[in-house]
Amino acid sequence: MADLNDAELNALAKTAGIDISPKLLTEVGYSLNALLDALDQIDVSDLDRVESLPIILPPSPQAGS
Question: How far does CA 37 lie from the centroid of its chain?
């Protein structure tokens, strides 16, 4: 996988509602690219044959209950 460049990092951050200062952009890029490389090396055989499950969150407590 090709490393994400500064423009792609800024676009991802904007999509997630995160503001990354230009001073930290290089460090965030190194960390995120290293994480993506590590995740790319994980090989789970037949993962595409497993049906995904929906995430079901417990009901939130009602105020005054």
Answer: 13
Query: How far is 29 from 65, CA to CA, in rounded Å?
Result: 46
Answer whether 0.70 is exceeded by the pTM.
no
Task: Express each pLDDT in 15-38 by its tens digit.
Answer: 999 999 999 999 999 999 999 999
Cα Rg of the chain, angstroms:
18
CA separation for the pair 28, 20 (Å, rounded)? 8
Q: How far apart are CA 65 and CA 60, in angstroms?
A: 11
Query: 19, 10 in Cβ contact below 8 A?
Result: no
Asked whether 10 and 20 are in contact (CB, 8 A), the reply is: yes
Distance linking the first and last C-alpha atoms of the chain:
51
